[in-house]
Design the sequence.
């Protein structure tokens, strides 16, 4: 009988325990994947330290790459791009599984469809186990968008595809075509620096990154930002500060990953005519924003929100990484001296250091 080591999260501020469980027989449509590498997303770290709550006990980790170990009965034989899926293939998969025939999914919002299942976010139950990245194996259920990986991309960069990169791809989709446009990226954490790289790759004219950390802004420059501004040093973010960076700027898109109300309000005052603001970072309780409706109307602004992503974004993320992983130093964003045995140290390191991502090596051979 096949067994899997599993890192089980029991609640905030409690040690994650390592247990060994039997791998259950695969059900209709399921695929067994041997996990190779998982990065700890900010939401994993926030769950670990109690800033957000999750069903428990659970297996955290949803930014995962692995190899197909076994195709279950009537498992999909093609990935979501139409390429064959075979045992031994390296794959990554979306954070979600949901009924693709639901109204929500057909409207491009599968991440909000009824019956939504999210890897790395589900309670361990007798009938539902091995659904996270911090284990030797993960069972992919029906209706999971899967992508076969054939390009030679380092594992730390690959693992980023199915949360960070796909979410940013969704934000860019909502912002519209960026070629020749000036884009403001606020918050230069993991998603912000990936956004700089994706905007640059799409041919944006100016990519302006704003943050409160010089170190993070230096990283943003390596990922394609051609102007940066430290909000902490310049008495807050103002439209004037942005104009000082580049006087001919016309901000036609702004992507917020900071989640800071004052920053989002600044974005809305800095956008040019016809501009689009996409808000991604504010995934925690906060005060209402102050919006000047006259300004919004006269400048024909669009404000959009984004949570997670859809299959189109997931595919765009994989294609971006295949084309551009060597254009930017992605692997340097991931600190990965960890494995399942050191998973508690990995979480503490993620919470206590400024690392963009912590990587966990699994099943090393
Ligand atoms: Zn995530």
Sequence:
């Amino acid at each position: 009988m096949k067994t899997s080591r599993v890192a089980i999260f029991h609640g905030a501020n409690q040690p994650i325990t390592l247990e060994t469980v039997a791998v259950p027989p695969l059900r209709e449509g399921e695929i067994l994947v041997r996990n190779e590498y998982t990065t700890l997303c900010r939401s994993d770290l926030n769950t670990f330290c109690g800033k957000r709550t999750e069903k428990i006990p659970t297996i955290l980790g949803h930014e995962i790459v692995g190899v197909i170990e076994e195709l279950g009965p009537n498992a999909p034989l093609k990935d979501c791009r139409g390429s064959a899926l075979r045992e031994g293939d390296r794959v990554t998969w979306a954070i979600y599984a949901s009924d693709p025939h639901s109204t929500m999914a057909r409207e491009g919002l599968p991440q909000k469809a009824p019956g939504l299942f999210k890897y790395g976010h589900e309670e361990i139950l007798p009938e539902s186990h091995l659904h996270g990245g911090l284990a030797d194996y993960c069972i992919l259920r029906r209706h999971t968008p899967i992508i076969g990986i054939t390009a030679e991309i380092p594992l730390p960069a690959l693992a980023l595809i199915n949360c960070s990169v796909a979410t940013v791809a969704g934000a860019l989709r909502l912002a519209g075509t960026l070629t020749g446009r000036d884009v403001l990226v606020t918050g230069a954490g993991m998603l912000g620096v990936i956004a700089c790289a994706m905007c640059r790759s799409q041919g944006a004219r100016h990519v302006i990154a704003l943050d409160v950390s010089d170190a993070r802004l230096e990283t943003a420059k390596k990922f394609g930002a051609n102007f940066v501004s430290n909000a902490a040093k310049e008495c807050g973010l103002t439209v004037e500060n942005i104009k000082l960076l580049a006087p001919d700027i016309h901000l036609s898109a702004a992507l917020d990953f900071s989640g800071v109300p004052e920053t989002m309000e600044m974005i809305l005052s800095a956008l040019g005519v016809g501009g689009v603001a996409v808000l991604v970072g504010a995934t925690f309780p906060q005060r209402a924003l102050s919006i000047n409706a006259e300004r919004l109307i006269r400048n024909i602004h669009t404000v959009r929100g984004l949570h997670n992503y859809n299959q189109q974004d997931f595919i765009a993320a994989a294609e971006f990484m295949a084309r551009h992983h060597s254009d930017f130093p992605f692997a340097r964003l991931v600190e990965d001296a960890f494995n399942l045995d050191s998973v508690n140290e990995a979480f503490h390191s993620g919470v206590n250091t400024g690392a963009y991502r912590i990587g966990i090596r699994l099943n090393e051979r």
Q: What stands out?
A: The longest helix spans residues 161-175. The radius of gyration is 21 Å. The CA atoms of residues 79 and 147 lie 5 Å apart.
